[in-house]
Write a structure and sequence with these properties.
Layout lengths: L6 H10 L7 H21 L9 E5 L5 E3 H14 L5 E6 L6 E2 L9 E9 L10 E9 L10 H4 L8 E7 L3 E6 L5 E6 L4 E6 L10 E3 L10 H10 L8 E2 L5 H11 L2 E4 L14 E2 H14 L3 E3 L16 E2 L1 E4 L1 H11 L4
Parallel strand pairs: 3-5, 11-12, 11-13
Antiparallel strand pairs: 1-2, 3-4, 5-6, 6-7, 7-8, 8-9, 9-10, 13-17, 14-16, 15-17
Helix pairs in contact: 1-2, 2-3, 5-8
Bound molecules: 2,5-anhydro-1,6-di-O-phosphono-D-mannitol and magnesium ion (MG).
Length: 335
């Protein structure tokens, strides 16, 4: 009979491989999975309980906030503020750091997250997801967390993952070694290990980028995209959902490349990037690299970027090592 591993058993097994572990990270992740189950239940019935639609506000990054964004944001804060594992949090939906209330103990970890990535597509029932990243704090134990606790490179993450609320709900997680996938069994309400040790293929046959921006790319990006869809490249397909979590999840499983390059639409000199480093690009880069892939801005590995502000953005090229190598060759004018 197949061994059934729920996420709690997986976390305990991982903890036992590290005798120095205090169990704090395991409890933190366990609390998070409960938040994900609550969000998953709500996403699944959004159309029924009138949770679709925008609430008329913009978030810290200037995007329209949807009702489900707010639900996901509130759920994570409510589940995570009192466990004694965190010293502060940072969210796409909040301009400033989220403090742990005075009355609760302050822990040794920091949580950065995007409560509902891809939510601009949600009314069309497109897959959305939660992205999360956990660092160890740098400031003294027991005190309130500070900005420097959050502004750490993704290379130093102790855990990261995402939950995709798709045709089924899936949690993809790494605590530093393997990348493992769990599917939520709605009957029993447990995340069960379904995709152990995910490895990205060395090369894929899919490229994923918003080609609606092509007039605003650097010419090198356009040259790569022209090449990748040409017969010379050997028959790549285009897939773009417009929900990073879904586009990167597919890239992780099938291989290929996901791009969100800088566009020169509003600022023709410096251009602008879309994806946020701390809670979108960084954790996804960490996971893809752990699974054998590559994640770069075009010049720097994303996991090496030193964030300087909470909602900082960066360029993104993520995927199979051979595909990202082709992209870099075009970007650096070698092809
Ligand atoms: P969001 O966090 O407001 O949903 O924005 C991020 C999303 C990503 O999921 C996705 O990759 C990107 O925005 C799509 O952007 P675009 O519509 O410009 O292609
Ligand atoms: Mg997002």
């Amino acid at each position: 009979m197949r061994k059934l591993v729920n996420v709690q058993r997986y976390l305990l097994d991982t903890e036992r491989q590290h005798p120095e572990a205090s169990g704090d990270l395991t409890s933190l992740l366990w609390d998070l999975t409960l938040a994900f189950k609550l969000i998953s239940a709500e996403v699944n019935k959004a159309g029924l309980v009138e949770l679709y639609g925008e609430i008329g506000d913009e978030n810290a990054s200037g995007d329209q906030v949807t009702k489900l964004d707010m639900f996901a944001q509130d759920t994570i804060v409510r589940m995570m503020d009192h466990g004694g594992h965190l010293c502060c949090m940072a969210s796409e939906e909040e301009r400033e750091l989220i403090a742990i209330p005075e009355r609760y103990p302050k822990g040794k970890y920091v949580l950065s997250y995007d409560p509902l990535d891809g939510s601009s597509n949600i009314d069309a029932n497109v897959s959305v997801g939660t992205i999360f990243a956990i660092h160890q704090r740098k400031s003294p134990d027991g005190t309130d967390g500070v900005l420097d606790d959050v502004l750490q490179p993704s290379r130093d993450l102790v855990a990261a993952g995402y939950v995709i609320y798709g045709s089924s709900t899936m949690l993809v997680l790494s605590t530093g070694e393997t990348v493992d996938g769990f599917t939520l069994d709605p009957g029993v309400g447990e995340f069960l290990l379904s995709h152990p040790n995910i490895r990205i293929p060395k090369r894929g046959k899919i490229y994923s980028v918003n080609e609606g921006n092509s007039h605003f790319w650097k010419p090198e990006v356009g040259r790569y995209v022209d090449w990748v869809k040409s017969p010379a490249a050997g028959g790549y397909k285009s897939r773009y959902i417009g929900s990073m979590i879904a586009d990167v999840h597919r890239t992780l499983l099938y291989g290929g490349i996901f791009l969100y390059p800088r566009t020169y639409r509003r600022d023709p000199v410096n251009g602008e990037c879309k994806l946020r480093l701390l809670y979108e690009a960084g954790p996804m880069a960490y996971l893809v690299e752990r699974a054998g892939g590559v994640a770069t801005t075009g010049t720097t590995p994303i996991i090496d970027l030193e964030p300087t502000e909470l909602h900082e953005r960066c360029e993104v090229a993520i995927g199979s090592p051979d595909d990202v190598a082709d992209y870099l060759a075009f970007i650096h004018g070698e092809r």
